[in-house]
Design brief:
The protein has 294 residues and is an all-alpha fold. It contains 12 helices and no strands. Helix 8 runs antiparallel to helix 9.
Length: 294
């Protein structure tokens, strides 16, 4: 759910910066076909670049996850999420530079970076869920949600044997509804953040991802091992149970307190807000490259 929120924020907020939904590969592929026919080669190159960046992100995840599996690392998915968090942090701090950074694909580096991040994250969740869940686009989520809603509304005839009755998978229904809601919530926050704060609004997202998923996932694995936790065991030792209690109580409280202290040190006065607002002028460069005549 947190990854769906993150994807919604980056996708919707990124649109205000580059005027493209960088997780929408269906749209890019359609754009590639349309502009090939129309002879708009700059837009063709842009679509090819976004598709290549998204696939490169997914391929990077596959390389890192399989590398971790072969070396029997405890946190298989922590490494790609750590890379995503670091890249997001850099984008939040120096994102304006990527808007004027040219590439061979006739789009700024910002477009390729955001598409790469979406591919990276989408592949992580796909591998974690055996290709059952996606977090960076919601077409499949809405489809699965509609299927389960249809099952829930289906009228079973009285007296029908249980094996012929249709029932919704309530857990699946709740999961997809939650993913859809978190993507929407992230989109609202991301759009508002980019509109009023600029690139700096990405920094909290990166910190949450960095502390809560990437580093947190690795630390949990090592701390459980330190407490003599045995995966799949019917009964755990007292030290393992004590470590589980600490992971669910004390440690989250410490991290939340630390995050509050860090964010309280960030001051947003009129001078800094004015400096961030100057990034808006860079968007004029994109209008000629991405949306000619618009």
């Amino acid at each position: 759910l947190l990854l769906a929120f993150n994807a919604g924020a980056v996708n919707a907020g990124g649109f205000l910066v580059v005027h493209l939904y960088t997780s929408h590969m269906t749209g890019f592929l359609s754009s590639l076909a349309d502009n090939l026919v129309l002879g708009q080669m700059k837009l063709v190159l842009g679509a090819v670049g976004a598709l290549w960046a998204f696939m490169s992100g997914a391929g990077t995840t596959a390389i890192m996850v399989n590398w971790a599996r072969h070396r029997r690392l405890r946190s298989t998915y922590a490494l790609p999420l750590l890379v995503e968090a670091v890249l997001l942090l850099l984008f939040g701090l120096v994102g304006a530079i990527t808007l004027s950074w040219p590439t061979p694909f006739a789009v700024p580096l910002a477009v390729l970076l955001l598409a790469f991040l979406m591919g990276l994250q989408n592949a992580v969740v796909a591998k974690m869920s055996s290709a059952q869940i996606r977090t960076t686009h919601v077409t499949g989520t809405v489809t699965d949600l509609g299927i389960e809603m249809g099952k829930a509304l289906y009228w079973n005839r009285s007296g029908a044997p249980p094996e012929r009755q249709v029932h919704a998978n309530r857990q699946r229904l709740a999961l997809h509804a939650g993913l859809l809601g978190m993507f929407l919530a992230g989109g609202l926050l991301g759009a508002a953040g980019f509109k009023y704060l600029g690139f700096i609004c990405v920094v909290p997202l990166a910190l949450v991802l960095l502390l809560g998923i990437a580093i947190g996932g690795a630390l949990v694995g090592y701390m459980l091992a330190w407490g003599d936790y045995v995966g799949g065991a019917a009964q755990q030792t007292d030290s393992a149970l004590q470590m589980i209690k600490l992971l669910f109580t004390v440690f989250p409280g410490v991290l939340v307190a630390l995050l509050i202290v860090i964010m309280s040190k960030y001051s947003l006065d009129d001078k800094r807000l004015s400096r961030l607002a100057q990034d808006e002028g860079i968007q004029l460069v994109l209008s000629d490259v991405i949306m000619p005549g618009g």
